[in-house]
Amino acid sequence: MRKSIFALVLAFAPIMLPAPVAAKPAASAEKLVIDRARIDAALNQMVDSGRATGTSALIWQDGREVYFGTTGMADRQAGRPMRRDTIAQIFSMTKPVTGVALMQLWEQGKFHLDDPLAKYLPEYASMRVYAGQDAGGTPRYVPADRPILVRDILRHTAGFAYGPGPTPVHDAYVAADPLALTVPLAEASRRLARVPLMFQPGTQWEYSMAVDVQAALVEKLSGEPFADYVRGHIFEPLKMHETAWRQPDERLPRFAAMNVMTDGKLVQQSDAAARLLNFQDHALTPGGFGLASTLDDYQRFARMLLGRGELDGVRILKPSTVRLMATDQLDPSITERAWLPGKGAMGFGFDVAVRKAQPQTSAENRGAVGEFFWDGLPSTLFWVDPANRLTAVFFVQSQPFDGTLHHDFRAAVYGPDYQGPPGD
Questions:
Q1: Hey, which residues does 116 pair with through a beta bridge?
Q2: Cβ distance 295 to 393 under 8 Å?
Q3: What are the residues facing 37 on neighbouring strands?
Q4: Of 243, 244, 272, 274, nearest to 258 (Cα)?
Q5: Does the N-terminal peptide bond of residue 416 adopt cis geometry, omega within 30 degrees of 0?
Q6: What is the per-residue burial (b if ≥16 Cβ within 10 Å, else e) of 54-64?
Q7: By C-alpha distance, which of 29, 8, 76, 53 is closest to 385?
Q8: Domains defined for the chain, CATH in brackets
Q9: What's the number of CA atoms in the CB half-sphere (13 Å) around residue 340?
Q10: Across the strands, what pairs with 149?
Q11: What's the predicted TM-score (pTM) here?
């Protein structure tokens, strides 16, 4: 079980939101027209090439559905095709949901972004930071220069580790096992707090367990179990009736099977593996992964963000809060950004990546400045594109994370040479 969680963690390499949600399209920008045949061909090619066993996509533009399509199988062994109501495991696409939950509490004045995290979760009061090894190979640790701020856990600058790796900090993380399915969020947070930081808070960007800490903070500030809070304040108001960490048994036959690339071929995993991620029998309700959803459900979440916090007359966040989340929050001095630059000309907001400039090369994913997005380990993806008044959700269940699927899907949506409006 522990190995499975580490595999999960390492796989949560999603992609997140770019610039302000309120960005306006350039006056000279040509209207983006969705080419259904081009998208159909791209989805079919993903299956034909063996990179996916089944795919599905749903796109809204200008307040209406402009594309829905599926290809291939949700479950090859059962002979079940991908359908609109197929339920997929979305892994790190859970993270923006958690961010919305926490920012709702920020709007209520429950905390300030620059409050020390330890003000609410005292286990983080006296953090140590890894400072290399001495001449004899013994790890050195120094006190943190400043407290971890709530802002740090929203933008992945706290210094936390996230699974195994090359340093003693990673070893300590593995030993602490903070994402064990048998422990609740509060205990997961306490376990993480015993692990030294990889770097001084606020100095580097490193994808981490910070969003699970956000979930623990939601529980502490709201006084509700995290899943109950999210259901009552996000899913039910948005009518996302089939999105949950713990899915009822009657929905399990609609789950898409997970597939793992092994020796060049996708191998379907057992039903037991799907149940492991269904969290029905586990104490942990993580903020960073674990949700399963349908295309239509997650599209409602994306449309709410495009609507600057509102969908169908229901307000989830203020427009200014969505704009804040979808604005780059990384200081220019934060030059160490792990793999984030591999996503393109990206900054990072609160739980989303943010596109800051037009695509620079043909290899870079197509998209518009001001877009914000994230993805999930099995290569799932969503994005919000205010410039084109567009939202897209893409489902597939292929591991490890395959960025070529996103490249091809985006090229099909925008056209292979799309540049979009210029940045600032």
A1: 149
A2: yes
A3: none
A4: 274
A5: no
A6: bbbbbbbbeee
A7: 29
A8: 2-104+226-414 (3.40.710.10), 111-222 (no CATH)
A9: 31
A10: 116
A11: 0.92
Q: How many CB atoms lie within 10 A of CB 241?
A: 12
Residue 310 token pair:
């509102």
How is residue 2 written in tokens?
A: 């522990």
Token code pair at residue 98: 């958690």
Cα gap 150→288, rounded to integer Å: 16
Residue type, 14: P
| Ordered per-residue pLDDT tens for the chain, 424 residues | 444 444 444 444 443 333 334 434 433 356 899 999 999 999 999 999 999 999 999 999 999 999 999 999 999 999 999 999 999 999 999 999 999 999 999 999 999 999 999 999 999 999 999 999 988 889 999 999 999 999 999 999 999 999 999 999 999 999 999 999 999 999 999 999 999 999 999 999 999 999 999 999 999 999 999 999 999 999 999 999 999 999 998 999 999 999 999 999 999 998 755 555 667 778 999 999 999 999 999 999 999 999 999 999 999 999 999 999 999 999 999 999 999 999 988 999 999 999 999 998 889 999 999 999 999 999 999 999 999 999 999 999 999 999 999 999 999 999 998 988 887 6
CA 210/CA 207 separation, integer angstroms: 8
